[in-house]
Amino acid sequence: MNNRERAMAILNYQPYDQMPVVHFGFWDETLQKWADEGHITQQEASEWEDGNHADLSITRKLGFDFNWYSCFHWDSMLKPGFEPQLMRQQPDGSREIMNVDGVIVVEKDGAGSIPTEIAHLLKDRQSWQEHYLPKMQWSPARVDWQALQRLPDPAERDHPIGLHCGSLWGRIRDIAGLVGLSYLMADDPALVDEILEATAEICYQGTKAILEQYDRFDFAHFWEDICYRAGPLINPAFFRTKIGPHYRRITELVNAHGIHIVSLDCDGKIDKLVPTWFENGVNTMFPIEVGVWNASIEPWRAQFGTELRGVGGASKVVLAWDYAGVEAEIERLRPLVELGGYLPCFDHRIPPDAKWENVQYYAERMRRVFGN
Questions:
Q1: Is the preceding peptide bond at 351 cis, omega within 30 degrees of 0?
Q2: What is the pLDDT of residues 337-355, one digit of tens each?
Q3: How far, in Å, CA of 241 to CA of 235, rounded?
Q4: Helices marked H in 80-239 — which ranges?
Q5: Do the beta carbons of residue 132 and residue 122 sit within 8 Å?
Q6: What is the pTM of this model?
């Protein structure tokens, strides 16, 4: 068996000879630190993207088999995006920049965290219709068709490749802002419905067009990131009634093309949204961020049964500790692996405080513990 076959066998409760050792990519700052330390080249650090040649090289050096987030991406939101522009230079050296989403953020040299948002162009129906609606139309130009045709057939690849189906709410939140979107939901719910419909239609049409040309993906994938440490950043009832049906429409489409593993990337405490995702065809939770709330596939499996799968759930924080911490984390994963339908993976991108030798040790020990 190759690693693609092993991963898909695990997620489909089929026999396999050994478990692949999987990661979820890296922070740019992590790669630069490792390049400075001499573990990887500057070229690898600067050229890295999920699933590309640099990713494959770094993956091998660390001892992993593949990056789960190896997906075919396409433009599923604003096209074209706004031209970034400097709005104001602050005395402390920080800059107020309007980014590609029409959001004014504060940027500062050396800051690695998410920039602070201070204003949003999308704030009412007029701004939606004038600035955003023209950028939210389906067009085949959203897809790199040549890149699609270069994808290898399943028999020729050693790791799974997914089709990214877009985002139904997370990207809307990115553009309007959490506070602004919350006000819109109260002040103009019809506008929110219109924005959601436009977003979902692009996701559906793009997915449909791609599958009509190439449907040999191993899984389908969504991105949201709409939860934090205490729970969802959206009302679960609204999510169930308004957004759930859009998931169902897309998951039925990918199922019709023979794709039955549908994963979704959402950080934070996702428990209150899992029922909506699961009931509407999303059957693989990722990356199961452990956090301070101790997320795990175990309670979801108890609630939903074996149709609920998972990729993730390995705490990234132990990579900054020592070998003993790594060993303890691997031991914690043992009973979860025994549940089946679960592929351990770090619960986010490997952060800058991760020690190269700890990451290598994790990969080596995972291979020994779950190698057969």
A1: no
A2: 999 999 999 999 999 999 9
A3: 10
A4: 125-127, 145-149, 170-176, 178-187, 189-213, 236-238
A5: yes
A6: 0.95
Please identify which residue in the block is written with the tokens 């956090």: 291
| C-alpha Rg value of the chain to the nearest Å | 21
Type of residue at 320: A
Question: What's the Cα-to-Cα distance from 22 to each of 125, 205, 226, 318, rounded to whole Å?
Answer: 44, 31, 24, 16
Q: What CATH architecture does domain 3-78+121-369 belong to?
A: Alpha-Beta Barrel (3.20)
Tokens of 10: 């695990």
Q: Which regions of 24-138 does DSSP assign to beta strands (E)?
A: 66-67, 71-72, 85-89, 95-98, 103-107, 116-120
**Domain extents in the chain:** 3-78+121-369, 83-120
Tokens of 172: 């809307």
**Tokens standing for residue 328:** 């303890």
- Asked if residue 6 lies in contact with residue 19, where contact means CB atoms within 8 angstroms, the answer is yes
How is residue 199 written in tokens?
Answer: 């977003």
Give one word for 236, left, alpha or beta, with left for phi > 0 and alpha for psi -120 to 50: alpha
**pLDDT tens-digit map of 203-213:** 999 999 999 99
Cα–Cα distance, 154 to 86 (Å, whole number): 45
Span 223-258, pLDDT tens digits = 999 999 999 999 999 999 999 999 999 999 999 999
CB 311 within 8 A of CB 262: no
